[in-house]
Amino acid sequence: MKLLKLKSVSYIYKGTTKPVLNNINMEFKTEKLYAITGKSGVGKTTLLSLISGLDTATEGSVIYRNEDIATLNRDRYRASNIGVVFQSYNLLTNATALDNVVLSMNISGNKDKTSEKKQMALEVLNRVGIDSEKAKRKVLKLSGGEQQRVAIARAIVHNPDIIIADEPTGNLDSSTERSIMKIFERLAHEDKKCVIIVTHSATAAEYADEVFELNHEKTHKC
Amino acid sequence: MYIIKNSLKNLVRNKGRNFIILFVAFLTLTSVTLSFAIWKISDSSIQRYKDSFFMDATIDYDWEKLEKDFPPTEIVNEDGSVTQESSFELEELTLKDYQKFSHSNCLKSTQFVISAQFASENLTPVPNNLHKNQEIVSIDGMTLEELMKFFHVNTREEVVKELGGETELKKVLDTKDDTAGSLVGYTDISYVEEFVNKEKNLTQGHFPEKDGECIVSSKYAEHNKLKIGDTIEVSGPSKSDTKIIPLKITGIYEASLSETMAEAWGEFYGSVYTTYDTVADSDFHWISPIRVVFQLKDPDSAERFEKELYQKGMSEYRFLSYANEKSEYQKNTEPLKNISHIAEIFTLCAVVIGSAMILLISLLNVRERKYEVGVLRAMGMKKSAVAVEFVFETLVMMVVGFVLSILASTLLSQPIADVLIENLNGASTNLSPAAILLCGLTALGLSVISGLCSVFTVMRHEPMKILSERN
Ligand SMILES: Nc1ncnc2c1ncn2[C@@H]1O[C@H](COP(=O)(O)OP(=O)(O)O)[C@@H](O)[C@H]1O
Ligand SMILES: [Mg+2]
Q1: Whole-model pTM above 0.80?
Q2: Which CATH number characterizes residue A192's domain?
Q3: Each residue of B257-294: pLDDT tens digit?
Q4: Closest to B18 measured CA to CA, from B356, B351, B368
């Protein structure tokens, strides 16, 4: 099923003249893992911020389930329909891993009992490789790889259709990289999500069903 | 609901930052509350001292000025002795004058002792013992002929001279021939000299408590066969006074004047004491003020009051004289005024400095706040929800600060007041509702400052910007 579509998307940062993204067209479906590759500075992160509704395209549109997200309530869209794993995680570092994950459920409007939400958050954390002891630690006291997993748990716990991740394996060793990529693969194929990851690691790209290469001239479907 | 929970959790998570804010807020609120309390306590000590300080003033002749402007003429008598006679007669102040003077907002109250002769059909004066064998001779009600005979003179002018003035003659001619004593009305018995210096003492019954009650001397009661509970009927001294006033006797006094003096002045026993209003409202002719004491609100209003008196027509040959010293008042109030003033300034400073510090800390926290805003907004939290969370955090902190400050101030206000204020004059050192209110308002003000900083951060920045800037 066609879930997300970029239609002639261009983007120019305020105060600059040169477009970072120029007439981009892409389509994303459920149950697929996509990889977007490209040189540093080519606009991958910018593209993700348009998909996640953190920013809006200067020209063209991002269509989610046949609706232009520019016309949607983008707070709601971010809270419920999409999960973002930021390149630098962007977790509340003073809060515990568990609190970060529960907060995401709360923001998405989950009205279950706190104990039930905690139980579910713990399950999700366990699924991405964070045990209960680590879940109750402050994020500050977790390693980079562990923080990455917490960020993934936070992005998927509210059951969004789309999960996007910005260089999720960028600063991880290769065995950790593989286990993280396996999580994404499972999310796409078993949980039937649309997973989009930005990466410039060849290993990571191997897991993808489809790879887009972004460059200044044109977007190639590989 | 989760927003509230999250902000409470957030308070605990950011202990370090919040501790500093709470500490500054606590210091500010406590300083504000305490200095305000001290300010008000010293003010109320001043007020209490003012209230207890009776500045009594009476109107006196300015003899010096009178003599300077109107030098007395010397008259050599037939026997060669010399009498000095003033060439200027100042008219007596009437009860009306005094009543006019007493309407002033410089005064706490005015004490009056006034008197008028009275006539009565069935009362007679106590006979003068000196003239035991003679008939008591009263000139009251005599005709001009009788007066000429009495003074052994032949002309009207000579009678006027004997009596000391035209008005005196008119008064004598107009007086009823059955005057039987004098009615004394007072506002406060402690201003009636003969009772204060114990020349007269109440021995039975009680002093008049209501209008229409009176006390008489034991001699007068004996002479007229009166007892407590009896009602006497009196009327004014002038032939034109027809109104009869009933007075109920509630007490008997003893006049302890030396025998000779008493005998020389039978009238001494004839005074009937009643309330001021009874006499003032009687419409009797010739009510004269015996003693009028103005009680000033405070020494500061003395000058204003005197000015007022001159404006109301008091002669320049009169002035206001005081029963007690102004310097004593100043000695007692000056240090309190200083403390009050310093505390007032301190209160203001505490508010301003405290607010500035909270503002500074909030601004320094904006960076940290911005990251939180970015994370929460990126997760899809609404702007308003983030703002509510932050404002609630601030409010909780200020409520805690407020409670702690009120506790500290309650404990400290008494010892600090004891150290700073030597003479409390019985003023309460408890924290007043006004101080608590001010503390609350300041806490609210600090919340607004701190809250606005966070809300501004939330409103002004887009999450993408915040996050990309940080990375
Ligand atoms: N806030 C910004 N304002 C202006 N230019 C920006 C901003 N953020 C990124 N850029 C520029 O946009 C281009 C693309 O950035 P980015 O999307 O982060 O690239 P990538 O993630 O592919 O490395 C870069 O040249 C970068 O300098
Ligand atoms: Mg990037």
Answers
A1: no
A2: 3.40.50.300
A3: 665 555 545 556 789 999 999 999 988 888 999 999 99
A4: B368
